[in-house]
Amino acid sequence: MLKYRRMKYVLIVPDGMADWRLPELDERTPLMVARTPSIDRLARESLVGAVLTVPQGMYPGSDVANMALMGYDPRLHYTGRGPLEAAAMGVPLDPRDVAFRCSLISTDGETLLDYGGGGISTDEARLLIELLEQRLSTPRIHFFAGVGYRHVMRWSDGPTELNCTPPHEIVGQPLRPHYPRGDGEQMLRQLMEDSFELLDAHPINRRRRDEGKLPANMVWFWGQGRAPRLEPFSLKWGVTGAVVAAVDLVKGLGVLAGLEVPKVPGATGYVDTDYRAKGEYTLRMLQKHDFVYTHIEAPDEAGHHGDIEAKIWAIEQIDRHIIGQVVDGLRTQGQPFRLMVVPDHFTPVAKRTHAEGAVPFLLYDSEQPRPNRLPYDESVLNEPGIPFVEDGHRLIEWLFLYRGAP
Length: 406
Known about the structure:
Layout: E1 8-14, H1 30-33, H2 37-43, E2 47-51, H3 62-69, H4 74-77, H5 81-89, E3 98-107, E4 112-114, H6 122-136, E5 141-147, E6 150-155, E7 162-163, E8 181-182, H7 185-199, H8 203-210, E9 218-225, H9 233-237, E10 241-244, H10 248-256, H11 275-288, E11 291-296, H12 298-304, H13 308-332, E12 337-341, E13 359-365, E14 388-389, H14 395-401
Parallel strand pairs: 1-11, 1-12, 2-14, 10-11
Antiparallel strand pairs: 2-13, 3-4, 3-6, 3-9, 5-6, 7-8, 12-13
């Protein structure tokens, strides 16, 4: 009698991997140029298609797109980026509390020089955020330290009707025209300017300047919202699961969905993240659960910095140390599995921020390989007749339920 073997499901999201063709790459994209033997082998036996991860009219951010890829309709559940990150950090939110993403940025006092605080480390950033909590907090406003330049501010009974600009949208532009506008704008602007007064001459930033680095000398508020409610993933799909990620945005989605969110040593949310550890923890979580959502921020960071070589390198590390390691590990175990690869959105190096549009996905089934002539890259988006998923939150149905030709 054959022993029943449960299928394992893996969803790998290289954040911002999709890109435009570049003259520097002979009109190819970083994904087209990167050496990706693991992806190439899978593609020859996979379903390759396109998906619109972000609903029409919504900003193509990682918050909206990853919520959709995890199977939750952003039009129904999305309230803002801040509360997702607050969930990952264990910041309690009452129903009327508003959480803001609180980014440490680099500025000369007039212009936004870097949206990520010059690559500020988590340890350095924690000291800066703790200072702001000591000096700028009130009974209603508090600061919470996160990872790298990514932090949270909680405003009890705070406003949500604000127009707040993501800092990665305005690198190299003057600050003040992009300050928050709407209910509560004066408080936010004052906090931002007070943070500059406190942080610009801080010993950490003096040392960073001496080392030729940009200072992390001001906070920038955006992504505000109240805590959303998500149906538990296990009830929705009948499997338990885990999220392997470095950034609090994606970890917070996992927490709210009731998925296990392990702390991965060496996972930084930058290009220098430990790719091998991400692959190892994906396999480790698959020993406990039937589903793992593995997110890698590195391609997005490289795109925001306009760094072509870093983006190519990050894609190659994902291919070797995550996709390749996971596939080899599951095959060695004789474990049947389905694996999907899909970026959450475009982050073109030429634009240095997010862009709209459908992205390519790959779906491999170890028990039902599907002969395929198409590569897995952005060129398939122009192929007539490829499968197209218009509602991004339904793509996960293909991972769990797909049984044959569309």
